[in-house]
Design goal:
- This protein is α+β, with helices and mostly antiparallel strands.
- Among the domains are: 60-151, Factor Xa Inhibitor, CATH 4.10.410.10; 156-208, Pancreatic trypsin inhibitor Kunitz domain (Factor Xa Inhibitor, Irregular); 216-268, Irregular (Factor Xa Inhibitor).
- 18% of the residues lie in helices and 15% in strands.
- It is built from seven helices and eight strands; from the N terminus they run ααββαββαββαββαα.
- A two-stranded antiparallel sheet has the order 1-2. A two-stranded antiparallel ribbon has the order 3-4.
- A hairpin with a 4-residue loop joins strand 7 (231-237) and strand 8 (242-248).
- The longest helix is centred in the last third of the chain and has 12 residues, at 284-295.
- The protein is flat and about 70 Å long.
- The model is unreliable at 22-72, 76-88 and 276-282 (pLDDT under 50).
- Pfam families: Kunitz_BPTI.
- Residues 22-32 have a biased composition (Low complexity).
- Finds in a complex with ABCB1, TFPI2 and PPP2R3C; leading to the dephosphorylation of ABCB1.
């Protein structure tokens, strides 16, 4: 039994009814749709320091990627992910992050952050835009100092950029590079330039990377002790030049044992990788007097 196809066809609208169209005010202008396709009137535009660019019919382009204006639209993209400070990774990776130049990113938020300034050798505050940037970006001053305190401090002269000078000689010289924290070869023109200019590699290393030493206790190995407790403590690792956590058993051990990481940092931050030389004190005056007595023996004096 065949079914009549006309019975399954939906009824058509009477010709007298007008076609249903959205009002003109609810549609986006073509210019705005082509330049900012993902706009939403329900997403409030964030304040920015510069004047917004008009994209048509009052719609505004948000610097972070969204728009605000009249009319409905799809759900806006999520706000940019805030750059988090570098996690506790190896000291070499943390050092590379701290030596990066500050980068506020392409967005225009005004977020206070901290970065390590390799020229002043200290943590400085800067305004972060809110997205992208690099790993030299810390939430607090304390986070910055904990991550970057192992970087060696160099004299002011070694923080200058290598300058070949205006002359045209071809002299092999060495300069200290703050980005790599190493002495590197460069070609000096023969005149002017600056003080970051050394004739040989060893002179550059001796002046810009002096080996600093700290207290002897910072060079002691990790010692958990002799008892059976499990107390979190910190010790200074002279090989990695960083403070690390360990479990202290409660008794015994050595002096390389700190209650907090900050205490470890404050005591051992100047420690290098080599133990300092210990010069035993000598009494020079006593040695001289003994030599005189041996060469010229005392005469017996009955009045004394």
């Amino acid at each position: 039994r065949s079914r009549d196809p006309a019975a399954t066809r939906p009824p058509s609208l009477p010709p007298s009814l007008p076609s249903v169209r959205p009002p003109a005010a609810a549609t986006w202008p073509p210019a705005a749709a082509s330049r900012c396709p993902r706009c939403c009137c329900r997403w409030p535009a964030r304040p920015w320091p510069r004047a917004p660019s008009q994209v048509g019919a009052g719609a505004r382009r948000d610097p972070a990627g969204g728009c605000a204006g009249p009319g409905p639209g799809p759900r806006p993209p999520p706000p940019p992910r805030w750059l988090q400070p570098p996690s506790l990774v190896s000291p070499a990776e943390k050092q590379r992050a701290c030596l990066l130049p500050p980068d506020d990113g392409p967005c225009r938020a005004l977020v206070p952050r901290w970065y390590y300034d390799r020229y002043t050798q200290s943590c400085q505050e800067f305004t972060y835009g809110g997205c992208h940037g690099n790993a030299n970006n810390f939430l607090t001053l304390d986070d910055c100092e904990k991550s970057c305190w192992t970087i060696k401090k160099v004299p002011k002269l070694c923080r200058m950029e290598a300058d070949a000078g205006p002359c045209r000689s071809h002299l092999k010289r060495y300069a200290f590079n703050l980005s790599s924290m190493r002495c590197e070869e460069f070609i000096y023109g023969g005149c002017y330039g600056n003080g970051n200019n050394f004739r040989d590699l060893q002179s550059c290393v001796d002046h810009c990377l002096p080996e600093k030493t700290g207290p002897l206790l910072c060079y002691s190995p990790k010692d958990e002790g002799l008892c059976s407790s499990s107390v979190p403590r910190y010790y200074y690792d002279s090989k990695t030049k960083s403070c690390k956590e360990f479990k202290y058993t409660g008794c015994g051990g050595n002096a390389n044992n700190f209650v907090t990481e900050t205490d470890c940092y404050n005591v051992c931050r100047k420690a290098g990788t080599q133990k300092p030389r210990i010069n035993k004190p000598t009494n020079v005056f006593r040695r001289k007097m003994m030599r005189k007595l041996i060469k010229k023996p005392q005469m017996y004096n009955p009045k004394s």
